[in-house]
Amino acid sequence: MKAIWKNTLLAETDDTVIVENNHYFPHESLNKEFFEVSEHSSACPWKGTANYYHIRVGEDINPNAAWFYNDPKEAAKHIKGRVAFWKGVKVE
């Protein structure tokens, strides 16, 4: 699986976990130079608190376009250490 935005490879792996139709990539598969920590967070009743990354490719920024759970609830423990994408990031 690949995560691509602005024709740039953000992550690639053959080990994703699918939850609610989202592919969660291992943190190690990220091309970290394109990710910036965001202060944004959100809450999911069964997964816990999500934290976010902004994605930056050149001068283009896609705010809060990747999310992860640092400390997921028990029902979502299988996505700990994994990152998912949205907001125009193509996962194929």
Notes on the protein architecture:
With about 90 residues, the protein is mainly beta. It has a single domain, classed as Metal Binding Protein, Guanine Nucleotide Exchange Factor, Chain A (Beta Complex), CATH 2.170.150. About 0% of the residues lie in helices and about 55% in strands. It has no helices and nine strands. It has a six-stranded antiparallel sheet, with no helix packed on it. It has a three-stranded antiparallel sheet with strand order 2-1-9, with no helix packed on it. Strand 6 and strand 7 form a beta hairpin. The protein is globular and about 35 Å long.
In short:
The protein is mainly β and 92 residues long. Helices cover 0% and strands 57% of the residues. The model has no long low-confidence stretch (mean pLDDT 98).
Total domain units: 1
Measured on Cα atoms, how large is the radius of gyration?
Answer: 12 Å
If classified by CATH, what would the architecture be? Answer: Beta Complex
Q: Give the low-pLDDT segments.
A: none
Given the helix and strand composition, which structural class is it?
mainly beta
Distance between the termini: 6 Å
CATH class identity = Mainly Beta
- How helix-rich are the residues, as a percent range? under 10%
Secondary-structure element order, as H and E?
A: EEEEEEEEE
Count of DSSP-assigned helices: 0
Give the rounded overall mean pLDDT: 98
Structure characteristics:
6-stranded antiparallel β-sheet, 3-stranded antiparallel β-sheet, 9 strands, Metal Binding Protein, Guanine Nucleotide Exchange Factor, Chain A, 92 residues, mainly beta, 0% helix
